[in-house]
Structures are given as C-alpha cells and as structure tokens.
Amino acid sequence: MPSQPTLVVLLGAPGTGAQALAAALQERLPPGAVRILWSHDLGGLHSPGQADATRHVLLMGLDLPCPARDRPEQEAADASLRTDLAQREMGYQVVYGHGDQRLANALNAIKNMAPDASLWSTGSTSAPTPAARPARTARLRAWNCEKCSDPECEHRLFTALTGRNARGA
C-alpha cells in the first residue's frame, strides 16, 4: 500500500496570503509529493482519509499589507488560530515574507519539517540538501530576521556575531 503524501496545512487570518501561497507551492512542488490544504481556521481542515497522514502546519505571518480598518479583525483571527493550535497541542512554524521570499521561506520550512519527503530528491525546489550547497563565509542578511524562517540563516547570524565578540574582547 503506497504511503500517503505529507500533508502541509497553511493557516492564516484573512488577508495573510494562505491561498496564494498554497497555489504557488502546488505549482512548485512535484505532483503527489506533498498535499497542500489552506484555511482561515482549523475547523475547515477535517479532510477524509487524512487521519493518519503526517501533518505539518505553516501559519501565515501578519507582515503583508493590510488596510488599517481590517487590522484588528486580522489580528484577532491570528490570535484565535494560535490559541486553537496551542489547545490542540499542534506544532507550527510561522512563514513571513513577500512574494518569492515567502515561497522560499515556506519551502525551507517544509523541508525542515519533512526532510524525508520524496520531493527533496528532485531538482524542482530551491531547497537543496546541505551537501549540495557550496561552502560560504558567514555574512548577515539584508532583511530583518523576523521575516526569515531559515534556521541555517539564524545559525550563520549567531555564529558570525559570536565570532565578532570573541575577536573584539
């Protein structure tokens, strides 16, 4: 019996881009490697046949532009999602960024949550294995860290900072 594909659940308050990210991921990932579902609440995610599937949850960050009049509702929906996830003891990762940056951050998050997924054996994603990456010197990124979900980036940042402190002391 073939195993079910990994299930990636994209959750986000209205206006946070969950549906657009789901479509972008579907275009980017090999067919059948990962099943993508998106919703504005956990209630809409009861999918038949997915009870035994491995679920990975990505929560959309609140960094996309939002009209000021809609912001309180968006923040309340986000808080409700986080409360529901905590009550169900479901782990999740928050995805930030705009456009291609958000897509790359989501792909990295999926790779980190599901490193054994069959999609990583193909060359179709931008998340190569560490062995395939050329060695680079540590350098700081040009964007804010709260918009990056890449743990390797965080490691490089702190390694670079601790190296500076050791040399400067």
Structure description:
The chain has 169 residues and is an alpha/beta fold. It is 36% helix and 12% strand. The protein has helices at 18-28, 71-87, 100-113, 151-168; strands spanning 6-11, 34-39, 55-60, 93-95. The protein has a 4-stranded parallel beta sheet, covered by helices on one side. Strand 3 (55-60), helix 2 and strand 4 (93-95) form a beta-alpha-beta unit. The longest helix is centred in the C-terminal third of the chain and has 18 residues, at 151-168. Mean pLDDT is 75; it is low at 121-141.
Sequence of strands across the biggest β-sheet: 2-1-3-4
State the end-to-end distance.
60 Å
What are the secondary-structure elements, in order, as H or E? Answer: EHEEHEHH
- Shape designation: globular
Brief sketch in words of this structure:
Helix content is 36%, strand content 12%.
Q: Which properties best describe this structure?
A:
169 residues; alpha/beta; four-stranded parallel β-sheet; 4 helices; 4 strands; 36% helix
How is the secondary structure organized here?
Blueprint: E1 6-11, H1 18-28, E2 34-39, E3 55-60, H2 71-87, E4 93-95, H3 100-113, H4 151-168
Parallel strand pairs: 1-2, 1-3, 3-4
